[in-house]
Here is the input.
Amino acid sequence: MRVIQMCEDGTSSTLSEIVKKYKVSEVTIRKWKYQFDTYGSKGLKESSTWKK
Here is the structure.
């Protein structure tokens, strides 16, 4: 099981936990992570898959 998120409070989540929590596909989470890793928070603001 791979942990991919480390929160400010020190907790972490697996990809499957994040998918369930935000009700989006694994592909979407991976895209968001790539956008954030590459462009920072600006990359997420420009994401067409971001749910409001």
User: Anything to note?
Assistant: The two ends are 29 Å apart (CA to CA). The chain has a mean pLDDT of 76. Residues 44 and 50 are 7 Å apart (CA to CA).
